[in-house]
Amino acid sequence: MIIAAGFVLGALLGWMAARKRQGNRFDKVQYTLVYAIIFTILALFVTLFIDRMT
Question: For this UniProt entry, which segments traverse the membrane (predicted)?
Answer without folding.
Answer: 29-50
